[in-house]
Specification:
mainly alpha; two-stranded antiparallel ribbon
Length: about 325
């Protein structure tokens, strides 16, 4: 499979270029080699996936955690590719469930190939990821990744069950994103620490770092759906609302807006109608829901930073800490 070599979006961030750019090129080679197939449709969808770029943040986290822990081998490339395969398979399935037409500024796979092909290729990615896991020959790696994929799937179901539920609480929202998003961040940093054979206490610190950073990242994603630049984030603003997703800006506004504004929010959630999107933004602003959401993301990022306070200093540790700031200040 011939795929043009593109720099993942996250690697355009200056502090990561020096830290890990060459390692990410190796990970992309592993991905390309293992997404090759004699089946033409798999090749076509896989080429679309790789060329779509994306942040590749989860493999970045695994590589940085391994380096920060002192790992000097090569298995982190394989594990980073496995993590990206799992993540990509969830995106393929998500886009079908959400009927999304755009991701990363380009048409989604389901928009190009229809719904059936991305679902089946997503299954192919899952199974290929597990084939690679076996090659690492570690029961702990298998256990961590098997648990992570199961928790992520449960999180997807939780989100589906709560679509359009205007009574969803902030605590329940955080639980959903801990499952749906943060779990793979957590697995990424834990696997890096595991490869480095750090102490149980240090491994736990990396687990908590990944959990808090992943939570911060998802909260910011949910904020950018209302405040971001559609071209920068690569999707249409208001997509979450159109899909009935109850995210923190809506949850906070429903708890703090007046009765009239709450009625407008509920109608927007129940209908998924974006015609009055600008009016909704005004309501969220009045209720201080947007500033609150960013402050909540910053709290999670600060918790993540604190988890690495006792780690030996290194360029990789510094990059991980800088990712905490990037997570809550980014525009994409």
């Amino acid at each position: 499979m011939r795929v043009s070599q593109k720099i993942p979006a996250i690697m355009q961030v200056d502090f990561l270029k020096q830290a890990i750019a060459n390692d990410m090129l190796v990970v992309d080679r592993v991905l390309r080699d293992n997404l090759d197939s004699d089946v033409a449709l798999i090749r076509n969808v896989a080429e679309h996936i790789i060329n779509s770029g994306g942040k590749r943040l989860r493999p970045v986290l695994l590589l940085l955690a391994a380096r920060a822990g002192g790992y000097a081998g090569t298995q982190h490339y394989t594990l980073a590719a496995i993590i990206e395969m799992i993540h990509t398979s969830t995106l393929l399935h998500d886009d079908v469930v959400d009927d999304s037409s755009q991701r990363r500024g380009k048409p989604t796979a389901n928009e190009i190939f229809g719904n059936a092909a991305p679902v089946l290729v997503g299954d192919f990615l899952y199974s290929r990821a597990f084939q690679l896991m076996v090659s690492v020959n570690s029961m702990r790696v298998l256990r961590i990744l098997a648990n992570a994929t199961n928790v992520i799937a449960a999180g997807e179901v939780m989100q589906l069950m709560n679509a359009g539920d205007t009574t969803l609480t902030e605590d329940a929202y955080i639980e959903i994103i801990r499952h749906k998003t943060a779990k793979l961040f957590e697995a990424s940093t834990q696997l890096g620490a595991l490869l480095a054979n750090v102490s149980p206490e240090r491994e736990d610190a990396y687990v908590r770092f990944g959990m808090h950073l992943g939570t911060a990242f998802q909260i910011m994603d949910d904020l950018l759906d209302y405040t971001g630049d559609g071209d920068a984030i690569g999707k249409n603003l208001g997509d979450d609302l159109a899909e009935g997703k109850m995210t923190l800006p809506l949850i906070h506004a429903l708890a703090h807006a007046d009765d009239a504004d709450r009625a407008i929010i509920r109608r927007a959630i129940e209908s998924g109608e974006l015609a009055d999107f600008s009016r909704l933004i005004e309501i969220l602003t009045r209720a201080e829901a947007l500033t609150y959401t960013q402050s909540r993301a910053r709290v999670e990022a600060a918790h993540a930073e604190a988890c690495l306070a006792s780690e030996p200093d290194s360029s990789s540790r510094q990059a991980l800490l800088q990712l905490c700031a990037f997570a809550v200040e980014r525009s994409f």
